[in-house]
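Give me structure tokens for this 69-residue protein.
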Amino acid sequence: MTAFDWPVLLAAGVQRLGLRPQEFWHLTPAELALMLGQGGEETSLARAGLEQLMDAYPDTEGAAGNGRD
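Here you go.
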């Protein structure tokens, strides 16, 4: 796992994006990356991927499927 360079990220958020420090600290790393023009494409999830996740992790315990038979 790569460590975040918080001073550089804070400077980018405050100076480049014009965020207040409070706004910066309320962002998730994914939100900040998107605002800085990084990521986005590789984080999208196609319908097939969503259905696989729904099958693997149903909303209710003991659910046998997702009702899409």
